[in-house]
Amino acid sequence: MTYSLDFRKKVLAVKERENLSFEQVAQRFDIGSKNTVFRWTKKLEPCATRNKPATKIDMDALAEDVKNHPDAYQHERAGRLGVCESCVQAALKRLKISHKKKR
User: CA 54 to CA 94: how far, in whole Å?
Assistant: First the structure.
């Protein structure tokens, strides 16, 4: 869960004003961990989402492979494309392709 910037500022202000420990502040504001509050002292702004493009796999080749072999398993696709199964899984997710096997 991402906490808002104004909440983070409020928490750190209370910590400074009342001279509380990281653990006391985390308990007072019901924050999951004292490490969370500690990280906020280093970097206050929340991280933006990460959109990393595919680097190892050619998305066009994967789309073509899905078209040519619609019932293939991910390990079979990985073998044909020369990447690992997790690369195929992530790339299929980026292409918004999911496939339920039929018996």
Answer: 9
Largest CA distance in the chain: 65
Taking the whole predicted model, whether its pTM rises above 0.70 is answered as no
Residues in the chain: 103
Token representation of residue 69: 């072999």
CB 67 within 8 A of CB 98: no
Could you tell me if 13 and 20 are in contact, meaning their C-beta atoms sit under 8 angstroms apart? no
The tokens of 29 are what? 């504001």
Block residue for tokens 């680097």: 55
- Evaluate the CA torsion angle 102, 87, 83, 58 in order and state its sign: positive
Of 88 and 2, the structure prediction assigns the larger pLDDT to 88
Q: 51 near 94, Cβ under 8 Å?
A: no
DSSP state of 40: H
